């Protein structure tokens, strides 16, 4: 794997990991009042378009990062409905 | 501008826009207790690496999106310190 690809995977891991604390906090506190579902739908749409963009560019780091981000966003939306 | 580039810019606009409500809310409520600065530093690092990745790939949508994201993250961190 070449340097640029590793760089992209590290960048993607960091930007995806940054949303994990919010998910952990929501699960622990069983509270999701402060989270706007509209924001997560915007985020989901954006991440889905990035996955499509990644396929058009055959860019593994973009595809991998945004598939993970999609899963995290979907988890967050599910928590929002569960604890709303 | 070809379709793929437009697709990337739209995706980037959505994923960056998704963090704006949090900034507006923090500014209005003048409260930033619930926000972990560690998360924003992880996000900042990730976005900075994505900018570098974008340059290595000469990928305008990735560069543009992550420069905007960097600005939004920095704003959020500044609000965190101001209203902490």
From TrEMBL, chains A, B:
Membrane topology: Multi-pass membrane protein
GO molecular function, one term: sugar transmembrane transporter activity
Stretches assigned to coiled coil: none
Record has Magnesium as a keyword: no
Chief subcellular location: membrane
InterPro entries, per the entry: PQ-loop_rpt, SemiSWEET
Subcellular location: Membrane
NCBIfam families: SemiSWEET_2
Record protein name field: MtN3 and saliva related transmembrane protein
Biological source species: Mucilaginibacter pedocola
